[in-house]
Design brief:
Layout lengths: L13 H11 L6 E2 L16 H12 L14 H12 L4 H4 L3 E7 H16 L4 E6 L4 H7 L4 E6 L1 E2 L4 E2 L1 H10 L5 E5 L12 H13 L3 E6 L14 H9 L6 E6 L11 E7 L9 H19 L6 H11 L1 H31 L7 H5 L4 E3 L4 H11 L1 E2 L5 E3 L8 H12 L1
Parallel strand pairs: 1-12, 3-4, 3-7, 7-8, 8-9
Antiparallel strand pairs: 2-10, 5-6, 9-10, 11-13
Bound molecules: pyridoxal-5'-phosphate.
The site of pyridoxal-5'-phosphate has 12 residues, from helix 5.
Length: 411
C-alpha cells in the first residue's frame, strides 16, 4: 500500500508546460512561440493539401483495414523515406547497404539508435552540439550512454564556432558518436555552409567517427527537400568506406503529421571489406532493431505510415508535397522579415538581422531568460527560456504585438 508514497514528483516538461500555461491564460491576445509546430497565417494547425489527398486515397483503397503492420513497419514508408533523404541515386541504397525500420517519429528513431548503440558499443561517448534539442541528452542517457558536447554556437558572433567544433572532432576518442542536425539546427537556426560541412565530414572520416544524422526538418531550411538533404548525402559519400552512419528521420514537421508519430531509422553500412557479406550484416542489424521494437511496441502504428507512404510514392502527391513545403517555409521566411522590420522600425536596441539570417522553424533570438519571463508575464508572448522562438507561431495578426513586446522588454 505504501510502496509509491515516496515517489519523487518531477517538474513538468518545460516545453509542453508552456502550452498548458498558454491555455490557462485568459488574456485576449496571446502568442505561442514555444513548440515547433507549423501554423497558418490565422494561427491554426495546417493539414497539408498533399496529406489530405493521401488520406483520401488511403481510406478509399479497397484493401483499407487496420491490421497490424510487420515489426519493422510499412515498407512503402521505410523505402520512400530512405529515398527522399538519402537520394534516389544513393550508392548505399543501390548496393543494398541500408537497413531501415519504421519508428515512432524522430524521437522513436533516436530511441532505437540509442538502444542499438547501448547494445553494440556501450563504451562509446555520444557527442551533442552545444546547444542542442533538449531531448537529445535524455534519450541517449536513458539508455546508459555517456554524453558529451561539442562547441557549435558562438553567442558573441551569433555564428558557427567551426574552429572549436573541428578541434572537438579531433580530440574525441577515435570512433566516437557525433549527433549532427541534418538541417535547420534546433535551437539555433544556424546550419554549416556547404564548405563547412565538407570540413566537418572530412574530419569525421579522418577520425573514424560514427555520425548520427538527426533529420527532423528536411524541407524547412531552404524550402527544398533535396537541398536540405545535402549534409546527409555528403556524409554518405565521405564515410562510405570508413564507418556506418545512423539516420533518424521524422515526418512530424515536414508532412505536418505531428501526433501520428511517423518516422524511420536507417543504419547505412559502409562498403564492406573483402570477405564480409553486407547482406548478412544488414540482416543482423535489422533483426536487432526488430527485437527492440517487438518488446516495446510489438509493431509500429499503421495509419500515418500509410498516408506518408502515399505522399512519398505517388508522383502527383509528391510534387504537391514539395509545393506544400515551399508554402510553409516561405510563410516562415516572411514572418522573419516582418518581425525584424518591425523591430528596426521601433528602433529596438541591438541588431536583429540574425532573425532573417537564421533558417528553419526557429530563431535563437538572444533574449535572456528574464526577458522571456517578462514577455510571458506582461505581454502573453510565450517562448522557451533559452530565447528560442518558433517563428511558425507568428502571423500577420500578431507579429506587430510580438515586436512591441520584445521592444518593451529589451529597452
Ligand atoms: N530532433 C530534433 C532536433 C527535433 O527538434 C525534434 C522535435 O522537435 C525531434 C528530433 C523529434 O520530433 P518528433 O519525435 O516529433 O518527430
Amino acid at each position: 500500500r505504501t510502496i509509491f508514497n515516496n515517489v519523487e514528483l518531477l517538474p513538468p516538461d518545460a516545453l509542453f508546460n508552456i502550452k498548458k500555461r498558454l491555455t490557462d491564460d485568459s488574456r485576449p491576445v496571446k502568442v505561442d512561440l514555444g513548440i515547433g509546430a507549423y501554423r497558418d497565417d490565422s494561427g491554426k494547425p495546417w493539414v497539408l493539401p498533399s496529406v489530405r489527398e493521401a488520406e483520401r486515397l488511403v481510406r478509399e483503397d479497397p484493401s483499407y483495414n487496420h491490421e497490424y503492420l510487420s515489426i519493422t513497419g510499412f515498407t512503402g514508408l521505410t523505402d520512400g523515406a530512405a529515398k527522399v533523404l538519402l537520394g534516389e541515386e544513393s550508392a548505399a541504397l543501390k548496393e543494398g547497404r541500408v537497413a531501415s525500420v519504421q519508428s515512432l517519429s524522430g524521437t522513436g528513431a533516436l530511441h532505437l539508435a540509442a538502444k542499438f548503440l547501448s547494445k553494440t558499443c556501450p563504451e562509446k561517448s555520444v557527442y551533442l552540439s552545444e546547444p542542442t534539442w533538449a531531448n537529445h541528452k535524455a534519450i541517449f542517457e536513458s539508455q546508459g550512454l555517456q554524453t558529451a558536447t561539442y562547441p557549435y554556437w558562438n553567442a558573441a558572433t551569433k555564428s558557427l564556432d567551426l574552429e572549436k567544433y573541428l578541434e572537438a572532432i579531433y580530440s574525441a576518442s577515435r570512433g566516437s558518436i557525433f549527433v549532427l542536425h541534418a538541417c535547420a539546427h534546433n535551437p539555433t537556426g544556424l546550419d554549416p555552409t556547404e564548405q563547412q560541412w565538407t570540413k566537418i565530414l572530412d574530419a569525421m572520416a579522418a577520425n573514424d567517427h560514427i555520425v548520427l544524422f538527426d533529420s527532423a526538418y528536411q524541407g524547412f531550411a531552404s524550402g527544398n527537400l533535396d537541398k536540405d538533404a545535402f549534409a546527409v548525402r555528403l556524409g554518405l559519400q565521405k564515410l562510405a568506406t570508413v564507418s556506418p552512419i545512423l539516420v533518424c528521420q521524422s515526418f512530424a514537421k515536414n508532412v505536418g503529421m505531428y501526433g501520428e508519430r511517423v518516422g524511420a531509422f536507417h543504419v547505412v553500412l559502409p562498403v564492406p571489406e573483402t570477405g564480409v557479406e553486407v547482406q548478412n550484416v544488414k540482416a543482423a542489424v535489422t533483426s536487432q532493431l526488430a527485437k527492440i521494437t517487438r518488446s516495446e511496441l510489438s509493431n509500429p502504428p499503421a495509419y500515418g505510415a500509410k498516408v506518408v507512404s502515399q505522399v512519398l510514392n505517388n508522383k502527383e502527391l509528391r510534387a504537391q508535397w514539395y509545393r506544400d513545403m515551399e508554402t510553409m517555409s516561405s510563410r516562415i521566411q516572411k514572418m522573419r522579415h516582418a518581425l525584424r522590420d518591425h523591430l528596426v522600425a521601433l528602433k529596438t536596441p541591438g541588431n536583429w538581422d540574425h532573425i532573417v539570417q537564421q533558417i528553419g522553424m526557429f530563431s535563437y533570438t538572444g533574449l535572456s531568460s528574464e526577458m522571456v519571463q517578462r514577455l510571458e508575464k506582461e505581454h502573453a508572448v510565450y517562448l522557451v527560456s533559452s530565447g528560442r522562438a518558433s517563428i511558425a507561431g507568428l502571423n500577420s495578426g500578431n507579429v506587430e504585438h510580438v515586436a512591441r513586446a520584445i521592444h518593451e522588454v529589451v529597452t
